[in-house]
Write a structure and sequence with these properties.
The chain is 36% helix and 11% strand. By secondary structure, it is α+β, with helices and mostly antiparallel strands. α4 (123-135) runs parallel beside α5.
Length: 183
């Protein structure tokens, strides 16, 4: 078993990357869909264009948020699975007792490699990917891999839930991708 750190970039490169990200956040901003989040960002001091759903971040605000979150995540966890590392050791790598992953997160498109094109996923694609997640022993939770384009969006979550229940016994979740489903 290998253990240790893999350094893809050195400290100087990390600093340059950080500065470049800060520059993009300040000058280019982010497209953010959600008026409540945009309102919260405006209240926090971000420049916000509500009509175009865009926000720009001041570097000091980003740094303050990074500092406030730095020690918050001491455990490494999968979104559904029990924390598999008790702690994040300083200057070392957290190593799980068991390798485990969640599978599938509602992708709205499939890149069809043979044709070189993107296409909307179908229910058959959903079943195939659920069965793949079910077959992989490392996968401890199977979530709906796709947002299926061949189903009425008002019931897509219900149909995807049905397919999960029929094709895996592993825990998992399905998220809504359409405001019409919420009602």
């Amino acid at each position: 078993m290998l253990k240790g750190k893999l350094r893809a970039i050195d400290r100087r490169q990390m600093h340059r990357l950080h500065e470049a990200v800060m520059d993009v956040l300040q000058k280019t901003g982010l497209w953010i869909r959600g008026p409540k989040l945009l309102e919260a960002l405006a209240e926090a001091g971000c420049k916000v264009d509500f009509q175009n759903q865009r926000a720009w971040f001041k570097p000091d605000l980003v740094e303050k948020q990074i500092a406030s979150q730095r020690d918050r995540y001491r455990m490494v966890r999968s979104s559904l699975w029990y924390p598999f590392c008790r702690e994040m050791p300083r200057r070392d790598v957290a190593w799980p007792d068991e390798f485990c992953v969640d599978f599938g997160f509602g992708a709205p498109w499939i890149y069809d490699y043979p044709s070189g094109e993107y296409r909307r996923p179908t229910m058959q694609d959903q079943v195939r990917m659920i069965k793949l997640g079910n077959a992989l022993s490392e996968v401890k939770a199977v979530n709906a891999p796709f947002v299926c384009g061949d189903v009425d969006p008002r019931i897509e979550t219900i149909e995807s839930s049905r397919l999960l229940l029929l094709n895996t016994r592993k825990p998992g979740w399905v998220g809504t991708s359409s405001g019409a489903e919420v009602k």
